[in-house]
Amino acid sequence: MAEPVIIDCDPGHDDALALLLAAGDSRLRLLGVTTVAGNQTLDKTTRNALRILALAGAVDVPVAAGSDRPLVGELTVAEDIHGSSGLDGPELDVPVAEVAGVHAIELTRRLIAGSDRSVTLIATGPLTNVALLLRSHPEVMPRVRRVVFMGGSTERGNTTPYGEFNIATDPEAADIVLRSGLPVTMIGLNVTHQALATDEVIAEFLAMGTRLGVICAELMTFFASTYRRVFGFAHPPVHDPIAVAAVLEPSLVRTVEAPVLVELGGAYTRGATVVDLHRRTGHSPNADVAVGLDVQAFWRLLMDAVGRLNRAP
Ligand code: RIB
Ligand code: CA
Predict the structure, then answer these.
(1) Contact, 101 vs 95, CB < 8 A?
(2) CATH number for the domain that contains residue 170
(3) How many domains does the chain have?
(4) Which atom of ligand 1 lies closest to the CA of 165?
(5) Among the options 193, 239, 278, 283, which is catalytic?
(6) Which end of the chain, C or N, has fewer beta carbons within 10 A?
(7) CA 38 – ligand 1 centroid, Å
(8) What is the CA angle 288-293-299, rounded to 5?
(9) For the segment 57-104, what is each residue's pLDDT rounded down to a tens digit?
(10) pTM of the model
(11) Per residue in 171-208, pLDDT tens?
(12) Which residues lie with the beta carbon below 6 Å from any ligand 1 atom?
């Protein structure tokens, strides 16, 4: 039976692949998609989510916009990485579908309440919406199977030396989620940096011979140009679809239970995820932390999902 999931995202090139993976694998039932400000402003991440779902043929999946800023402080978008649209590279159609007429938190609450099974929340952007859901509707928590988020790192960060973008954008939200008591899986940079969209990956997208394949190739080509310029990477890491893969096939991602503490005050380290792998802090474990990835199996999973979407009527 398909696993019911809700994806909260900030598309974003890698968020786009996460949505395609979820839409293209029938082992997941994508109940809804909610958007958050992060890679770009909320209006742009929302428009991008609609565009990607339309490309995937998933126009029946409700989309609702959420928070347009972090809980504390101001939003700083990642225009240097994702471009002014948030999905620079390909020419994408103007979205046809409309957003649901409710806030992301209300849509999520309704979908969880209406699901016949507990729901897995997959977050691939700042955790602002998830934190606000847990704070404003704690009654949903018994029906949340797990929160799987792409964010943080057991090592160094990206947006600051020790802050990964999703967590560093809204550290307070990450702290709320990690202290919630819910089962949480953290997919950090230490793992996602292994999933690189190489020239062979781009060639495989192009070899599909479909518009979706070309668009994926163009997304990754743009993403490669910005990752090369900003971080000196030869190829861009696709962070977000690994959070979806971890739900689809948990065996692909090796995890260890550990305390994860979010630095809220550090003058230079605010937003760092302090992962106590050797239990030195005395804190109790609060997350399953990804420490390994079957990279080849991940790419097979993603390519098969996109391939199925190519063939969808
Ligand atoms: O640090 C990488 C994460 O930040 C990814 O989710 C990317 O899409 C951005 O949101
Ligand atoms: Ca993202």
Answers:
(1) no
(2) 3.90.245.10
(3) 1
(4) 1
(5) 239
(6) C
(7) 8
(8) 130
(9) 998 999 999 999 999 999 999 999 999 999 999 999 888 888 999 999
(10) 0.98
(11) 999 999 999 999 999 999 999 999 999 999 999 999 99
(12) 10, 12, 14-15, 38-39, 124-125, 150, 158, 164-166, 239-240
